[in-house]
Amino acid sequence: MNRNNYHMNDADELLNRGEYLLDVRETFEYELGHVKTAKHISLTELEQRATELPKDKKYTHTARVAGAVKQPQIY
Question: Cα(49)–Cα(47) distance, rounded to whole angstroms?
């Protein structure tokens, strides 16, 4: 697995490593299909809802467009 580019089939391995899956896609994209254990907070809501995220976890972001993943690097 490349550290910067995962496939949805890698979710189990990421979870086994203790990573927290954060889905930052818009709600309509999330509803089309998602990893069951991923926390969904759209990128447009991320700043307002950041307190919902655990501070002691390593994050892996998922987004439809690769550029969107680069934006929430504050975590």
Answer: 6
Q: What is the pLDDT of residue 65?
A: 55
Virtual torsion, Cα 28, 7, 59, 40, nearest 10 deg? 20
- pLDDT tens by residue, 36-71: 888 999 989 999 999 999 888 877 777 665 444 444
For the chain, the three-class secondary structure string (H helix, E strand, C coil) is CECCECCHHHHHHHHHCCEEEEECCCHHHHHHCCCCCCEECCCCCHHHHHHHCCCCCEEEEECCCHHHHHCCCCC
Q: Is 23 buried (19+), middle (13-18) or exposed (0-12) by CB count in 10 A?
A: buried
